[in-house]
Amino acid sequence: MVPRLSRREAPTRPRVEGDREQEILDAALAVLVDVGYDRLTMDAVATRAKASKATLYRRWEGKAALVTDALVSQKSAPEVPADTGSLRGDLLAMFCGHGGLTDEHQTAILGSVVTAIGRDPEFAAAFRERFIAPKVAVARKVYQRAQDRGELRDDIDLDILTAALPGIVLHRGFLLGDPPTPDLIARVVDQVILPAATRG
């Protein structure tokens, strides 16, 4: 008869890590884009990842933690773009292209979680802290750099200014059906941001 292991002697279950962890996070993103945060379940992610639900719960306590990790895992931490010499150039470089407002994958992901921000306080807090805050910090540094160059008015509120461009572009995209394009971003920069913030 095989002796039973005591609780102290029982082997610990391996944690999900490395490539397998990333496969599960990629599966979570795929389900998120397909059905949105509200309809995403741990079962659906486990099925997409060809893993057991128990495997997911060994690593994540629930879908808020899983989805937040999946969002953060997409790429390395956002970095301040190279100095183009002007606020206009910096903003176009930062918001157009991969990872910016014209990145359809990024906007699809944002659209899939927007309802959850108002319904799931746990997810909303994690999403703001780990996904949004780093992006806001990078954008603020771009505006601060422009202010240090002397481009911006001394009395401008950088926190409000930082939110203006994505706020306008995403409002037009999600509510008015006007998809983000480099031309739209350039028009917002030229007609709203620069006239409002730069020295006359």
TrEMBL record:
> Could you tell me which SUPFAM superfamilies the record lists for this protein?
Homeodomain-like, Tetracyclin repressor-like, C-terminal domain
What is the protein name given in its UniProt record? TetR/AcrR family transcriptional regulator
UniProt DNA-binding region: 41-60
Q: Which organism is it from?
A: Nocardioides humi
The record's section on InterPro entries has: DNA-bd_HTH_TetR-type_CS (IPR023772), Homeodomain-like_sf (IPR009057), HTH-type_TetR-like_transc_reg (IPR050109), HTH_TetR (IPR001647), Tet_transcr_reg_TetR-rel_C_sf (IPR036271), TetR_C (IPR011075)
Alphabetically list the UniProt keywords.
DNA-binding, Transcription, Transcription regulation
Name the Pfam families for this protein: TetR_C_11, TetR_N
Domain (HTH tetR-type) spans 18-78
The answer to keyword DNA-binding applying to this record is yes
Q: Which domain of life is it from?
A: Bacteria
Q: Does the keyword Electron transport apply?
A: no
